[in-house]
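> example.struct
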């Protein structure tokens, strides 16, 4: 029985999902189109032409999925709310039927003894807002605060804590700089205003949520950055990459300023996006928790492309997931200690809001068990080292629509047959269930 993890009392065990990846029902009950509906319709945009039109059909099958979580024994569920389901045009009239769905889901979770942790934005921007500029338009931040308010007014009496944004770094880079995710823009460094406007949206929404007595988190993909060598040029490249990937979205929240991006030829106003008072708003009141999505470290070398001040270098000599990502559990421990060293007393409590791996389609997913065990070892060591860690949400409950990879990568504890929608727990499901039960018994005995 796995019971070796020394984690604090009250530690929350959970699973994570995202609306577009599991809900399906894209035309149901007044939901408006999102940027992902538009992007997946582009020929060649998604592997094998897959879309999230049906996905896991969670919109209709949510009671079955809540029962799976009850069987798993989790006490927390991190899911996202689809903005186009609540406000089909991203502004103005509220779609009551859409909020009814999340109302039923929240009640079902609470009946199962599971605390809901909703994320307000997991990349599915209403297409109507993208048509007027999306996250390049400052007004989108204000529309987000309006959406956060109406959603919290409906659900906030039963939802104690909210995550505003998921992985704003990935959304900016993949969606606006490189064009490999929705909305598919290829602006390179001209995408930086999308970073600031997402953070401004967080600040505005956080203020609205706090007036309603709710706690506020934000979740970002963070990575320990390692220079390819001790050569000064590699170390400088690693610092430049760290500023973009990690500090761009964390320094403003915790320190009230942007990092030095001069290596990119970018000033502190991010191409004029930053207005007076913005950074104070973004950092005001701090965070009640920082969500850390961790998958792997990043190794960086001196640039080979004159357009960027860094080049990514491979991490050799480690296992790899089905997706090809390096498996380095030690990186989670390294990352958390780096955050404490960097932000000190400004660092809020940490929740690992995503961590997991893709495997093949078999039910005997031993590589996932090994992956989760190694990362939980690293997390427990960080807790022993004094890091305030409050919870762990593995990605993901279900095999789902994995963005540009369609249904080709499977991250779930539960196998989904996308033709029949049959759910079948994998070996990792049983392992995680037994782990949670053992940890709970250990905590009760101490």
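> example.seq
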């Amino acid at each position: 029985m796995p019971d070796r993890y020394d984690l604090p009392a009250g530690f929350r065990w959970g699973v994570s999902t995202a609306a577009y990846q599991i809900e399906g029902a894209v035309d149901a009950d007044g939901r408006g189109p999102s940027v992902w509906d538009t992007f997946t319709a582009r020929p060649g945009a998604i592997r094998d032409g897959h879309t999230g039109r049906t996905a896991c059909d969670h919109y209709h099958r949510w009671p079955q999925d809540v029962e799976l979580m009850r069987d798993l024994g989790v006490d927390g569920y991190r899911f996202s709310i689809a903005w186009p389901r609540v406000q089909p045009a991203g502004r103005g009239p509220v779609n009551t039927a859409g909020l009814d769905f999340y109302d039923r889901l929240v009640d079902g979770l609470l009946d199962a003894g599971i605390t809901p942790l909703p994320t307000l934005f997991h990349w599915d921007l209403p297409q109507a807002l993208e048509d007027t500029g999306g996250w390049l338009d400052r007004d989108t931040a204000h529309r987000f605060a309006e959406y956060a308010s109406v959603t919290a007014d409906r659900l906030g009496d039963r939802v104690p804590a909210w995550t505003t944004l998921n992985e704003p770094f990935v959304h900016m880079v993949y969606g606006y700089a490189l064009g490999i995710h929705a909305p598919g823009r290829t602006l390179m460094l001209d995408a930086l205003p999308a970073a600031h406007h997402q953070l401004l949206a967080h600040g505005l929404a956080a203020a609205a949520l706090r007036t309603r007595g709710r706690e506020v988190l934000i979740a970002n993909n963070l990575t320990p950055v390692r220079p390819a060598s001790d050569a000064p040029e590699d170390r400088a490249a690693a610092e430049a990459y760290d500023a973009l990937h990690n500090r761009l979205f964390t320094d403003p929240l915790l320190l009230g300023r942007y990092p030095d991006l001069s290596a990119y030829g970018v000033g502190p106003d991010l191409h004029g996006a930053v207005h007076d008072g913005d950074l104070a708003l973004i950092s005001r009141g701090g965070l009640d928790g920082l969500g850390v999505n961790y998958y792997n470290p990043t190794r960086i070398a001196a640039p080979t492309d004159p357009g960027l001040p860094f080049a990514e270098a491979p991490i050799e000599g480690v296992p790899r997931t089905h997706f090809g990502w390096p498996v380095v559990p030690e990186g989670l421990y390294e990352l958390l200690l780096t955050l404490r060293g960097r932000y000190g007393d400004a660092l809020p409590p940490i929740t690992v809001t995503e961590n997991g791996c893709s495997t093949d389609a078999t039910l005997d997913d031993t590589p996932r068990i090994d992956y989760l065990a190694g990362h939980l070892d690293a997390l427990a060591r960080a807790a022993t080292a004094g890091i305030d860690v409050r919870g762990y949400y593995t990605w993901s409950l279900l095999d789902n629509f994995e963005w540009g990879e369609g249904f080709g990568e499977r991250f779930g504890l539960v196998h989904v047959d996308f033709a029949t929608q049959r759910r079948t727990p994998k070996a990792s499901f049983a392992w995680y269930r037994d782990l949670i039960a053992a940890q709970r018994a250990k905590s009760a005995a101490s």
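> remarks
Residues 329 and 373 are 9 Å apart (CA to CA).
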